[in-house]
């Protein structure tokens, strides 16, 4: 495989956003994933979301672990710094990067093997800490790069391409994220861009730990009958609790919605998440309710999607640590070094 | 009985029970002697336990300033019935036993060839105090008081120490002074202080030296060196380093106007995460470090390899201990040299710095942060438990006013804007070190994707063989550049030209200094060189080549540094003679002198070196 530079030329009528960027400016290198891979749809959704909300590409840092999912950051936001770290350990690298410069947007991209198996610990702890990030798991239930072994998110009883049955209970990353204190938790489907794009937009605007579990079928190893992560299975069992519209700034509601059918969430940066309820009894502000709802509906074989929980006023790791508003990586010797005089005093106290 | 009689040159060992509050009383004893101008070197010998198991505090008093462990014990303060037999046995013939005589001991529990001094410490304390905890704590101060009388120590020095320790808490000062005098006066009126042959007299050999633990000094080095991110996982004997960093940052790094912190410290979920955070922060342009010990290094190894290949600054302070994970966590060794020098899969080599004492822990911690940025690679500071967790007398810490941080080759937004060519892995000036950019620098230029290998000079994906080799050769060149940047070795020539040399490093220093003085006094001529860093400077190889036989003194079983010297220097293994001490206790001058003398005698037989024969007899 070689690096393929895309032609820089584009059609003059291509739409630009408020910063003058076209959608092409948010693209990366040409994908080397399989044709039809769900991950490419997620990359496209990320590109669309960043374009829509007028993000400066260079203000994003994208980090990943190892696996097909973790190759994906090469295929979007070519103008951003990226870091392909080690297997299952992206969360710690992202946490460190975030500590160094709180002004960038951190996008962690991982897979189900990367986050639910080898990296389950790091996944859990970065959620606990409330690292301000968008953490996307491209969840296909298998190890793609090593050719189709089950991952820890594979449902019990689901069948591999070779016919083996998975007997182990699945790790539900959404349930974990809710339990561990993530302040923006969503699940979506790579085949539902209309749902996914605003979820990503909302997650970027969210000033805390945002987690999106995106079911992303593996066309090579997990798209067959008997799989619960195939296109067909997810389409048939997808139960969206809401559709969200991401609105950068408050605008008048122009559409008529039935009373109680819309839940508006204003996030810390002033952006609005307008949730059109598809299930009248679902409240995206209720963490415990969300956990119960998910368990009940999972037991019924449903794949619950949508914005499942959001805390509109979250605290992040920097708030917990009361870190300087200025990025730590900009501080200089005058601000960091106590100086020779202070050292003389320390010496004197040690005699 | 031939009593040991010595002024300002002896070893006192306190045998205590862990958690009994003895540590601060024992430290008080050591500090009081320092205040009298007499150098001391105390060492904690403690179990992996919080309460109940035996613990010892060994204080070497030495007017000449030898700070290595001497070995043996002239005065045992036996406060732990559990270890009584072994403690009594350890006393040198003619030495002294001081014990709590509240409960009578059978005669068989003593020795004929030592002087026994009993004092009913528990009884005295119980009569004076009603509170159980006070009885325990003040019993410790009472024995310090008694020792001050027996050894002729200056009570004013101790009183002054109380005053400093409990500044503003007058009640505590008074009660401690009361307990001290209770012990002192009892000893003066009930014990025959003249039968104690060990005495302390005022001297002037401490000068302006400071008394500090290596971990504390290293933590200060990280503060002075500009570390803003610290990620760590608790592990003995390194935990006190991160905790000291926290303490110093709370004092020096809180913005006065906003009250916010110019630092971030994370106690991670494990060592994999702590090094991951350090690498993330380093990648993003903050100075970051972790403190750990051998088992932590094992867990960090994959990440350390990534940082080597992806060329990310990281400072790792390894406070070494005995291996493995369920090994000897509270004992000292220099046994992680190999595991750090070549940590990771793939071809890797890492920069190691070997501090000899707390002063160099400070210097090298700050230096490591500079080197990490300059060389864009992990830098290890290889300290150990002996330096890290014991207070050691050393030169005062120094910081040159106006010293700037070396942030290395970082391309700025202005340079990118001006069209300067940016290749993340491009060697532009022949030193093997490329330029990097911090994420978010420039809207259009300078972004790149960070990977281990599979990349070309412009960070573009490539799995081509020649591209891989090109990168690896540049990394090798960078390591060569490091030789000129790391601390240089320190040489000490023998009084006469010698065909024998000795190499040593790290915490072996104080014992070696003493051993070399002994060699000098005996007329044995051995040139010495202290290695302060890996990669090895060419002068180290020159030193070896200038001698017929070179002893390599290490505190590990396998002669790890010796192996590296043979390998890296392409040297004849027969020329390098291992002198190895690895039982978990700090190496002593006695061991070094004995071991080298034996080995030289063997050469003396064939080469007829007269002075050596004399010593060997």
Radius of gyration of chain A: 21 Å
Poorly predicted runs of 5 or more residues of chain A? none
* Morphology of chain B: globular
Kindly report the greatest chain-chain contact and the residue count on each side: A-B, 63 and 77 residues
Task: Please write out the topology.
The complex is a heterodimer of chains A (351) and B (617).
Chain A lengths: L37 H15 L7 E5 L3 H4 L9 E4 L5 H11 L4 E7 H6 L2 H10 L3 E7 L2 E2 L5 E2 L22 H8 L3 E6 L3 H13 L3 E7 L15 H7 E3 L1 E6 L14 E5 L5 E6 L9 H13 L3 E8 L6 H5 L11 H4 L2 H11 L2
Chain B lengths: L5 E2 L1 E9 L4 H14 L4 E6 L8 E9 L10 E6 L5 H7 E10 L14 E5 L1 H8 L3 H19 L4 H11 L4 H21 L7 E2 L10 E4 H11 L4 E4 L6 H14 L11 E4 L3 H13 L4 E5 L1 H17 L3 E7 L16 H5 L9 E3 L4 H18 L2 E7 H4 L2 E4 L18 H5 L31 E2 L14 H19 L6 E3 L7 E6 L3 H14 L4 E5 L1 E2 L3 H8 L3 E6 L5 H10 L6 E5 L8 H19 L2 H7 L1
Parallel strand pairs in B: 1-8, 2-5, 5-6, 6-7, 10-11, 10-12, 12-13, 13-15, 14-15, 19-20, 19-22, 22-23
Antiparallel strand pairs in B: 2-4, 3-4, 9-16, 14-21, 18-20
Helix pairs in contact in B: 1-4, 1-5, 3-4, 4-6, 5-6, 7-8, 7-12, 9-10, 16-19, 19-20
Could you describe the 3D structure shown?
The complex is a heterodimer of chains A (351) and B (617). Chain A is globular and about 75 Å long. With 351 residues, chain A is of the alpha/beta class. Chain A has helices spanning 38-52, 68-71, 90-100, 112-117, 120-129, 173-180, 193-205, 231-237, 287-299, 317-321, 333-336, 339-349, and strands spanning 60-64, 81-84, 105-111, 133-139, 142-143, 149-150, 184-189, 209-215, 238-240, 242-247, 262-266, 272-277, 303-310. Chain A contains twelve helices and 13 strands. The model of chain A has no long low-confidence stretch (mean pLDDT 93). In chain A, strands 2-1-3-4-8-7-13-9 form an eight-stranded mixed sheet, sandwiched between helices. A three-stranded antiparallel sheet of chain A has the order 10-12-11. Chain A starts with 37 loop residues before the first helix and ends with a helix. Chain A has one domain: Thiamin diphosphate (ThDP)-binding fold, Pyr/PP domains (Rossmann fold), CATH 3.40.50. Chain B is α/β, with parallel strands linked by helices. Chain B has 20 helices and 23 strands. In chain B, strands 11-10-12-13-15-14-21 form a seven-stranded mixed sheet, sandwiched between helices. In chain B, helix 1 packs across helix 5. The longest helix of chain B has 21 residues, at 170-190. The chains are: A alpha/beta (351), B alpha/beta (617). Strand 2 of chain A pairs parallel with strand 17 (449-450) of chain B, so a sheet runs across the interface.
